[in-house]
Amino acid sequence: MSRGQSNSLLSIMPLPAKMQRADGALKIDANFTLSFAGYKETRLDRSGQRFLRQLQRETGIVLAPSNKGTALATLALTTDHESKLVQELGEDESYTLDVSPTGAKLHAANPLGTLHGLQTFLQLVAIAPDGFAVPAMHIEDRPRFPWRGLMMDVSRHFLPLEVVKRNLDGMEAVKMNVFHWHLSENQGFRAESRKFPKLHEQGSDGLYYTQEEIRDVIEYARDRGIRVVPEFDMPGHSTAWFVGYPEFASGSGPYAIERKWGVFDPAMDPTDEKTYKFLNEFIGEMAKLFPEEFFHIGGDEVNGKEWDANPKIQAFMKSHKIKNNVELQAYFSGRVQDLVTKHKKTPIGWDEILVPGVPKTIVIQSWRGMDSLAAAAKMGYRGILSNGYYLDLGWSAARHYSVDPLGGPAASLTLDQKQLILGGESCIWSEYVNAENVDSRIWPRNAAIAERLWSPADITDVSSMYDRMNPESERLEWLGLTHRSFQRPMLQRIAGDDATPDELAALTELAQSLEHQKDYTREESAAAEPTSFTPLNRLVDAVYPESEISRRFSNTVDQYVASSCKDSALGRPLLGQFAEWASLENRLQALAQRSQLVKEASPAFSALSRIALDALDTASRGVPLSADQKKSKTDNLNAMEKQVHAAQLTLPMLPALQKLLDAASTGGPCSN
Amino acid sequence: MSRGQSNSLLSIMPLPAKMQRADGALKIDANFTLSFAGYKETRLDRSGQRFLRQLQRETGIVLAPSNKGTALATLALTTDHESKLVQELGEDESYTLDVSPTGAKLHAANPLGTLHGLQTFLQLVAIAPDGFAVPAMHIEDRPRFPWRGLMMDVSRHFLPLEVVKRNLDGMEAVKMNVFHWHLSENQGFRAESRKFPKLHEQGSDGLYYTQEEIRDVIEYARDRGIRVVPEFDMPGHSTAWFVGYPEFASGSGPYAIERKWGVFDPAMDPTDEKTYKFLNEFIGEMAKLFPEEFFHIGGDEVNGKEWDANPKIQAFMKSHKIKNNVELQAYFSGRVQDLVTKHKKTPIGWDEILVPGVPKTIVIQSWRGMDSLAAAAKMGYRGILSNGYYLDLGWSAARHYSVDPLGGPAASLTLDQKQLILGGESCIWSEYVNAENVDSRIWPRNAAIAERLWSPADITDVSSMYDRMNPESERLEWLGLTHRSFQRPMLQRIAGDDATPDELAALTELAQSLEHQKDYTREESAAAEPTSFTPLNRLVDAVYPESEISRRFSNTVDQYVASSCKDSALGRPLLGQFAEWASLENRLQALAQRSQLVKEASPAFSALSRIALDALDTASRGVPLSADQKKSKTDNLNAMEKQVHAAQLTLPMLPALQKLLDAASTGGPCSN
Question: Is the pTM of this model over 0.95?
Answer without folding.
Answer: no
